[in-house]
Amino acid sequence: MxxxxxxxxxxxxxxxxxxxxxxxxxxxxxxxxxxxIYKSGRFSTKxxxxxxxxxxxxxxxxxxxxxxxxxxxxxxxxxxxxEETVLIPxxxxxxxxxKKPLSIASHQWARNREIALIxxxxxxVWRHHSRGDYWLMDRKSGTLRQIGSDRPATSLMFAKIxxxxxxxxxxxxxDVYVESIATGIAQKVTSKRTPEIxxxxxxxxxxxxxxxxxxxxxxxxxxxxxxxxxxxxxxxxFTLINNTDSLYPxxxxxxxxxxxxxxxxxxxxxxxxxTHETLWLDVPGDPRENYIARARWINNNELRLQxxxxxxxxxxxxxGDASTGKTKVLFTDSDKAWVExxxxxxxxxxxxxxxxxxxxxxxxxxxxxxxxxxxxxPIMNDPFDAFQLVRVTxxxxxxxxxxxxxxxxxLYSVPLAGGKSxxxxxxxxxxxxSYDISPDGKIAFHTHSRFGQPPTxxxxxxxxxxxxxxxxxxxxxxxxxxxxxxxxSEFTRVNADDGTPLDVWIxxxxxxxxxxxxPMIVYVYGEPWGTTVTNQWGGNRYLWHRLLAExxxxxxxxxxxxxxxxxGRDFRKTVYRRVGILPPADQATAVKALALKYPWIDRxxxxxxxWSGGGSMTLxxxxxxxxxxxxxxxxxxxxxxxxxxxxxxxRYMDVPVDNPDGYREGSPIHFAKNLTGNLxxxxxxxxxxxxxxxxELLINELVKQNRQFSMMxxxxxxxxxxxxxxxxxxxxxxxxxxxxxxxxxxxx
Length: 748
Description:
It is a single chain. By secondary structure, the protein is of the alpha+beta class. The protein has 12 helices and 43 strands. Strands 5, 6, 7, 8, 9, 10, 11 and 12 form an 8-stranded antiparallel beta sheet that branches. Strands 36-37-39-38-40-41-42-43 form an 8-stranded mixed beta sheet, with helices on both faces. A hairpin with a 5-residue loop joins β26 (about 365-370) and β27 (about 375-380). The longest helix is centred in the C-terminal third of the chain and has 16 residues, at about 580-595.
């Protein structure tokens, strides 16, 4: 049987082979192709991420071993003099009976660098390589032994040396273990009451949306361990089907809470390592209707918890007594829309105050919270966001801000005692700046890039920002990019329907002639989690957009209201309860405004593409504005919001029972009947995040409405659709060729 959908896909895969392979004369510059972007390494860039010592004077990193091929030494580096000290040579990382050293994924130190805990042989758990093997290296005796050697291979997670450096705690198969460094004897200190209990790590939705994976904490005196317990017994079970790795299909099942459905019941236990008795903190409210998003020890007997209600418009900061289990509210951060967790809630002023970040005054500002009364006092009063905190020292708070250009990022500082903020980044570094600052705040690695310009990294002194030396120039990538045909790009603004300026980047076609009209492809995300209009090096995605421009397209991206940009609380949160409603309206208004501003944009040839939330936005564009968008590519979308997860969707849309109209109007599946343009839907069938299930529902609706479309399902690929040989190249050719065939490039 010749199915129209499969026939369309066949055409797409065989069309326009020049983008995959293109010949060139020996003296010409190699052209920009899918292969050259995603496979050749021609434009690859280097980056640098130091592991600072606590003192801030040196950092620890790996270097290629000079004695053992394909292995590394662990070294300490003085960033100013660049003097290197070998801490653990590769030959000391060879286990007994093995022929080659351990690979080092990460490491931690104790006893003034006398012992090291090495994480190796890692395995991916959803997004992160958080499971594997741990080895303890004693530099004084030269011994190397495996931690948790009696546990299943690669089953250990989040191993941590105790503050007194006498024990190592870790998670294995949903329970917490403590192992003596001296004797190697391990004891299980938690106990799962049922197979549906998880101790010491999290369920899927907490990991994905609160970035909470490591769920146990040593007390400062090493006498107790606080841990999260997840009771998933009433949580719905989701199933991924693997049809290709064996003769018969296999199933992967995991607990997953969709909007409005039952969450895990979560509580905090404190186990006494002498008595092995567990005390449970008395946290108020239904444990399935509230979230314990953060917990940390304040001292040997108290913990501080961040306790959010299900709507996530209140973050109650609780103090828990580890001896009695009682808790009390210190203060509450609230918002009419949603609140964020705070990962910088450190003590200062001799322990009298807690640092806190809140948007209560209309901007993301830093506060000091009185440790006894809970009173919040502003540390800064500037009319702009402290968008990202970078480092807190004894005297200064360093943060990223962009008061004048939301597309850029710059380093600012404000005294910890309070006062006026000042910019640290010099004017010559216009664009995107990121910093890795030493713990003492005296030096930093500064990385700078601009749109279309690869990053450079320098070692700088603070607060002067004087450059000590260059670390990475990425000169090879810069040279290769300079050889490409010139493509003009610019940043601009157009207005939303209420007059709010919206930021845009726009890339013009090769050999641009303003007297002609060109098709335009819009790259969209549009949801509250992220942003796309950034004045930074965009890597392979930038290069692919440039390839489209070389083919003869205008390419642009627009940050609608509600995107995560440094433009104040109201800009970010006006989208509350209107995700999928306000953003596509803003995008459409902006596209029309761009066409009026630039007559060389062909209104009859507007394309759109996006991934994840951007995939959903693409569907909303094609279904809600069929008169505007000609062709769209939707990758890994969520056509129905009720099929995503509880924490993310309810944070931005409220709970379904209180906003049923918003969920319906924001879900593109309900508008599929309006499709008139060319649509390609792409999804990985193994996507644990945006489930293939909801795309199948969309397929049924489009079939029901007799709307023709194209689709590609990548078997067992996850949300990133990058597993398997040649997948990325195949995917990018598929998208590119769809646009080339359905909305041909070039002027008219």
